[in-house]
Specification:
Blueprint lengths: L2 H11 L21 H36 L21 H7 L4 H34 L7 H8 L1 H4 L2 H11 L6 H9 L14 H26 L4 H9 L4 H12 L1 H16 L3 H7 L10 H11 L3 H34 L1
Helix pairs in contact: 2-15, 3-15, 4-9, 4-12, 7-13, 9-12, 12-15, 14-15
Pfam family, one: BPD_transp_1
Membrane topology: Multi-pass membrane protein
Organism: Streptomyces enissocaesilis
């Protein structure tokens, strides 16, 4: 029987509805396009980020855009009811703000200088105390866990509760600070005013450092965990002392951590509103009149929302410029160190 006849015979003997053809294997089947699957995998991260982006738009970006729009309008207690139809003021609010010969500009400049001095001192002390405490607790000894917990208490306490406690401690007649400095130690000649006058700057600085240094301590302590102990052991065998180990090993190894830490502390401190507001109230003393409180007074006390919005816009530009310059300088320093 010929092959053709054999195939016809098998086809005739096959049950009805069945095919005698060999089923296609995986190699014979046409491959489906994988593009939709790749699109789903590529779009999944954006889908997960979408809720955070929406919240960011609602909480930060939309109010920011509205504040910038308000800075170009003449907004007072008479026009704030419907600010969208308030008279257009152009750049007049910005001109009044940067005119340092006029009372508005002069007051803003004084507040800006006070804020700069306060920020430099607060950030420097927070970093110094936090770094010293983290290095001190790097070695294992009895009671280290308890000290770590105690050091983090100021950072864990609610800001309002902590600052209100300090406000009571700084009271002139029955405050703990005057009791210790004058009655117990005899350092001061009499009970000092800490919440008014020039001493208000010192009081604000103490509270800010007390609240901020535990954060620096926490970040530095985490960064120290990534430094190999073998480096310290080798340096000790070579005769390096403690200070040489800190200067040659610890600080260079912590440079990336310190770059981020200093930037975060700077932004937090420069924009701090809760601490001076709770400590002094709506009207801070001139020596402790931070720019955040000054903008609040210009907006909600004198009812000049257009000028206050212009001050906020200028503050945003200043912080963006400082942040960009800081990142540029630190990135260049890191590249030169790597080379």
């Amino acid at each position: 029987m010929t092959p053709a006849a054999t195939a016809a015979h098998r086809q005739a003997q096959a049950p009805a509805g069945r095919s005698t053809e060999r089923p296609a294997t995986g190699k014979d089947r046409p491959r489906r396009p994988r593009l939709p699957g790749r699109l789903r995998r590529a779009g999944l991260p954006y889908l997960l980020l979408l809720p955070a982006v929406l919240v960011e738009l609602l909480v930060h970006l939309v109010p920011m855009v509205m504040g910038i729009m308000m800075s170009f309008k003449e907004l007072t207690q008479f026009t704030i009811r419907d600010w969208s139809v308030a008279p257009w003021n152009g750049l007049a609010n910005f001109s009044a703000t940067v005119d340092f010969d006029a009372p508005v500009g002069e007051a803003l400049l004084d507040s800006f200088l006070v804020t700069c001095a306060f920020t430099v001192l607060s950030v420097g002390l927070c970093w110094l105390i936090g770094t010293a405490a983290a290095i001190f607790l790097q070695d294992t000894f009895r009671g280290r866990g308890l000290l770590r917990t105690l050091f983090l208490v100021p950072y864990a306490l609610p800001a309002y509760a902590a600052v209100i406690t300090w406000a009571f401690m700084f009271q002139r007649d029955n405050g703990l600070v005057n009791h210790v400095l004058h009655d117990q130690l005899g350092i001061t000649d009499g009970s000092s005013f800490w919440l008014i006058g020039d001493n208000s700057f010192i009081a604000l600085l103490v509270v800010s450092v007390w609240k901020g240094w535990p954060f620096a301590f926490l970040i530095i302590m985490a960064g120290l965990q990534n430094i190999p102990r073998e480096l310290y052991e080798a340096a000790a065998l070579d005769g390096a002392g403690v200070w040489q180990q800190i200067r040659k090993i610890t600080l260079p190894s912590l440079r990336p951590v310190n770059q981020v830490l200093v930037l975060v502390l700077f932004l937090w401190t420069f924009n701090d509103f809760n601490t001076p507001f709770v400590l002094f109230g709506k009207s801070a003393p001139e020596a402790a009149n931070l720019i955040s409180i000054h903008i609040y007074q210009s907006s909600f006390v004198t009812w000049n929302f257009g000028t206050g919005s212009a001050m906020s816009a200028l503050l945003l530009l200043f912080l963006l410029a400082v942040t960009g310059a800081y990142l540029l300088v630190t990135s260049r320093g890191r590249k030169q160190a790597d080379v």
